[in-house]
Amino acid sequence: MKKTLNLAMLGAVLASSLNALAQEPVRIGFITTLSTPAGYLGEDARDAFRLAIEQEGGKLGGVPVELLVEDDGLQPAKGKQIVDRMTLDGISLYTGVMFSNVLAAVVNAATQGDRFYISANAGPSNLAGEQCKANYFAASYQNDVPHEMAGVAANDLGYQKMVILAPNYQAGRDALAGFKRTFKGEVSEIYTKLNQLDFSVELARVRALNPDAVFQFHPGGAGINFAKQYGSSGLAKSIPMVVPVFSMDERMLAATGNVAEGVNVVSGWNPQSDKPANQAFIQAFTAKYNRAPTMYAAQGYDTARLIGSALKATSGNLEDADAFRSALRAADFDSVRGDFRFGSNQHAVIDWHLLKVQAGADGKLAEVPVKTIATAQVDSYAAKCAL
Amino acid sequence: MSRRIIIDLACLATFALLPLLAALLDEPFLVSLFTRLAIYGMAAASLDLLIGYGALVSFGHAAFFGLGGYVVGIVAFHTAQLMPLWGWEGSNSALIVWPLALLCCALLGLVMGYLSLRTSGVQFIMITLAFSQMLYFILGSLSFYGGDDGILLNERNSLPGLDLNDANQFYYLCVALLVGWLLFCRRLVGSRFGFVLRGLKQSERRTVSLGLQPVRYRLTAFVIAGLGAGLAGILWANYALFVSPDMAAWQKSGELMAMVILGGVGTLLGPVLGAAAYLGLEQLLSLWTEHWLLAFGPLLLLVVLFGRQGIYGLLMKGADKPRRARARSALPPLAAQEVRP
Amino acid sequence: MSAHLSIRGLEKSFGAVKATNNANLELAAGELHAIIGPNGAGKSTLIAQIAGEIRPDKGQILLGGRDITAVPAHERPRLGLARSFQVSQLYPEFSLLENLAVAIAAREGRSFGFWKPLSRDRSLLDPAFAYLQQVGLAPRAEDRVSELSHGERRQLELALALAQEASVLLLDEPMAGLGAEESARMTEQLMALKGRYAILLVEHDMDAVFALADRITVLVYGETILSGSVEEIRGSQLVRAAYLGEEHA
Amino acid sequence: MLLLEQLLNGLQYSALLFLLASGLTLIFGIMGVINLAHGAFYMVGAFCAAYTAMASGSFWLGGLAALAGSALYGLVIETAIIRRLYNRDHLDQVLATLAVVFFTNELITLLFGRSPPAMPTPEWYGAFVEVLPGLMYPVSRLLFIGAGLLVAVGMWLLINHTRLGMLIRAGADDHEMVGALGVNIGRLYTLVFVFGCALCGLAGFMAAPLLSVEIGMGEKVLITTFVVIVVGGVGSVRGALVGALLIGMVDSLGRAYVPPLLDQLLPAETSGALSAGLLSASAYIVMALVLLVRPRGLLPARA
């Protein structure tokens, strides 16, 4: 009896001293959407984030990290519950939320005090402008930029008259507003329903309006529905489409099939960029998960490496919030999206590309780069941020 | 001591001592989890009032949850933005905002109940669903209040003598309101009104032949149950500091219904246990695996197929029928009385 | 004798079926008036129209001289109309006392009480007990109705009708399904009520009807073909042909 | 001409709704089961269609797989679960079938992953037919309308002119009577349930090339399907047809004409929000109105 007790004590002592030797890992709260049809967004971001950690053998920037992933089910209230529990648990570094409405519920708790939130996808306008926060970073983009860039692309492509469509909810209305901000021609707006299945009615209206091109924002399943029906309605042959990458990411492309050929996609990530960091990422991701990464994966990977750069600069000490913040702002990492820096409002400033869906070298459809639309694009809210 | 009282006391003790336990285990999250249980428990118990005692299967109960929360959210929005609402500069006092929210819920209950009660059976289930979905879409189209993104609140409402921003104090307030609500519901189902409501479930023809108009009683019950869910919504808005349209979506109504069935229909305390089991399981399983629904589905199924009276029925198994035992002891022997002339 | 309840030219069709066809009936205060007729003659439909559950297509129902044809069912008890059901309509989950207490609270217009427990309200339970005594169910006062035998349920039906303190009782086959002994007891109880209420009794048990009724109306295919005293009906050739003949054939 | 095209579009949406609603209303009318899992069989059908078509390259084989897959899964679920629910109240059925939905969704996620598959289609599928002079309409959507019509006619023949149909009609009216006829009622129930599931499979197959084949696609149409059967009158196939046409047409024509109309009447800000709210809630508004006027639906099964 006594012996076992002693042994147990010895074990405890050993374990604690080992712990002291090996640094306590930095815990990162990764709140994301894994269930629901939109679950693949979170899955890609999470898998890429994990890949970055694995490549360093359980570390980021040389500092051991522990990734705590939880599914928000695309429900703001659930996201809020998770962040509340994680903050009580003492976690002070967060990322992973895919959707703006979940982010709105999560962001306050995740940035209070010395806590940091680094967005790997959603970048709502209020957080970029007047309500920008010292501890909030968007390593992805500001929500309006992809749509503004789509407007620029449409100008470049010489379209004069366009029909623009989006579901009638906050992000959809923002998308159309963003597009109109830069597009110089004439537009007709059509709002669709959230989670709409059938678009035949809208497509008939498009045909009747006979525009030069169509811009549409329908992420996830609705976007696949739209693209499939756009193709089968025959409009794809006569009226080209310009979309932000959310309406046609790699997975949606795979689900849509051949009818997606010819779609113009505006993205902050050029999957065929020959930058070594990008090529290495795509290779590693494909090897590990047996599928091609999406833009969400690229952003997740960038976010992980950004965090790694800041952890490295501060040796994993999150307690000095000012130091950690400066390290993040420096963004001293090799982004798979090319040149990367933070703007004054701590939102990513990156290049934007026009891609086109066409048969790649292997005969399969891929998003092939056409041109760069803008370099180091700063979002239109940065000026309003007092940081 | 009857089994029923033991269960009551055990639940009460758990709720009362929980913050101590949380402090001992150094798990402050427990308080937050149990606050959520108390709030959902209140909403589920109020739905049980309809389902279990009035045989009114409402598939739109989340409408009240959402509306209660939204009134709090909208008032807070105007107060924080210094933007008067029809000339009223807003208020952060719970004593003003909460009754206002309850009033709105009562009005909604009157209109929704009056129209829905023209139908019965499956049609009632669907028409209540329809009304709550309409509210859901209305809330979602309020782009001024964030549309689908909802409203973030800066602080909890204030109540004299309490600091609601303190997790423990807010928790005890929720528990006290839950206990109060359950006691009220128990009195209600045993009252003259409650007997009419339960009587309607057993024989509507008899009840009409006694000179009672069914709709008046059912509508009253509908409004009262709506107030319960509305209060839960108010507390939720304060707890989460966030309201969004999905508080009123059909999935939320379905969740509440699942809690009632899981806990035991027509038992009032059962649905609170059902809420605890539902949220607890969801929490545990989702920590364990992201494919938690794969396990959650069959678990639900087992309870439905083999645990007919829900959790409360399981706990009461083998115990005396409580109602009769109580009625007997409560009734003093009646003196032999003269038969009416 | 002035008619307390009058039915004039009542008609009701369900699709092509005429359930009630020119039904006429006069019920005097204190009179026990029986309605007899073969199965499917529309007796229950007639009762349902008087009680207000079914709205007639045509005709009039007068209670104490007032036209109540359009008065909804739940308002008729207040005007003095109480009924029992052919198939017992009771609250099986409640005790006998509680069943009656609900009826008494309803009669007194006190059903909108949200706080005081009904099961401990002496102002309801005491009179409830008295009604149970009246029909001989006092020993079972605190049992659940679901535990009662069929005969006891029929008696509780009667007690509930009595508890409404109405001037007119519509009794829809109170002896349905009763054995000989139980029927005899029910007949006795109804006999004790005679004269205190105007009773409209629908009944198949001819012995009971002939023992109890002051007047009898014969209903065939929804039509009141004959009305008269017990002797007149017994002697009527028409009734024999239309009704008794069938039964005794 | 645009109106005509929009009518066809409405018809096509109605066809999808009818394929789902006819099975659901039969299951409800005959067995009294509120089956929230009905949409799950539609999803299973779509997945079977897409993966089989991808693997075999044959469009029609995909269709066969969809029918077989949905029917088979329906048989398993009926035998294991639904059978035990016939004598339960609606609440138990709701919860149990909801559990089936949870389970099926996760099962499909585990089996096929989260990436929605693409359904390959033959060349002719993307072609157009001149329905009327000057009105070209895609084959894909005509096929859908055709399937809806075929099932409607088939169901009418089945119910009114076969022994099975006689039993179904009798079953909807009186369960005991069917038992008294010496029919194995359990087998009849299984048959009807599996038949409903096969119709879901057909709907899934028809939808796979046009809609995203994804987890949760069933729930998206499930509630609308319930709306359809309640509007039409629960338990009545004719009602399901009328309900599907009403809801489908209101939805499509509403989307086509309400926003332009409101834009003319109201300032842009209000009209946008208003038309969005109106259109999203259109099915529910129709249902509430129908039930307020006819509390049992338009064509209830039992008079």
Automatic annotation (TrEMBL), chain A:
Gene3D superfamilies: 3.40.50.2300. Keywords: Signal. Residues 25-360 form the Leucine-binding protein domain. Residues 1-22 form the signal peptide. The keyword Zinc does not apply. It holds the Pfam family Peripla_BP_6. The keyword Lipoprotein does not apply. InterPro entries: BCAA_transport, Leu-bd, Peripla_BP_I. PANTHER family: LEUCINE-SPECIFIC-BINDING PROTEIN, PERIPLASMIC BINDING PROTEIN OF ABC TRANSPORTER FOR NATURAL AMINO ACIDS. Belongs to the leucine-binding protein family. This is Branched-chain amino acid transport system substrate-binding protein. It comes from Pseudomonas linyingensis.
Automatic annotation (TrEMBL), chain B:
It is a multi-pass membrane protein. Pfam families: BPD_transp_2 (PF02653). It comes from the Bacteria. The chain crosses the membrane at residues 38-56, 63-83, 95-117, 124-145, 170-189, 215-236, 256-281, 293-315. It is found in: Cell inner membrane. InterPro entries: ABC_transp_permease (IPR001851), LivM-like (IPR043428). Keywords: Cell membrane, Membrane, Transmembrane, Transmembrane helix. The keyword Ubl conjugation does not apply. This is Branched-chain amino acid transport system permease protein. It comes from Pseudomonas linyingensis.
TrEMBL record, chain C:
Pfam families: ABC_tran. Gene3D superfamilies: P-loop containing nucleotide triphosphate hydrolases. GO terms for cellular component: plasma membrane. The keyword Transferase does not apply. Keywords: ATP-binding, Nucleotide-binding, Transport. Transmembrane segments: none annotated. The keyword ATP-binding applies. Residues 5-246 form the ABC transporter domain. One of its GO terms (molecular function) is ATP hydrolysis activity. InterPro entries: AAA+_ATPase (IPR003593), ABC_AA/LPS_Transport (IPR051120), ABC_transporter-like_ATP-bd (IPR003439), P-loop_NTPase (IPR027417). PROSITE patterns: ABC_TRANSPORTER_2. PANTHER family: ABC TRANSPORTER ATP-BINDING PROTEIN, CONSERVED COMPONENT OF ABC TRANSPORTER FOR NATURAL AMINO ACIDS-RELATED. This is Branched-chain amino acid transport system ATP-binding protein.
TrEMBL record, chain D:
GO terms for biological process: amino acid transport. It is a multi-pass membrane protein. The keyword Protein biosynthesis does not apply. It holds the Pfam family BPD_transp_2. It is found in: Cell inner membrane. GO terms for cellular component: plasma membrane. The chain crosses the membrane at residues 12-34, 65-82, 94-115, 135-159, 188-211, 223-250, 271-293. GO terms for molecular function: transmembrane transporter activity. Keywords: Amino-acid transport, Cell membrane, Membrane, Transmembrane, Transmembrane helix, Transport. The keyword Isomerase does not apply. Belongs to the binding-protein-dependent transport system permease family. LivHM subfamily. This is Amino acid/amide ABC transporter membrane protein 1, HAAT family. It comes from Pseudomonas linyingensis. The lineage of its organism: Bacteria, Pseudomonadati, Pseudomonadota, Gammaproteobacteria, Pseudomonadales.
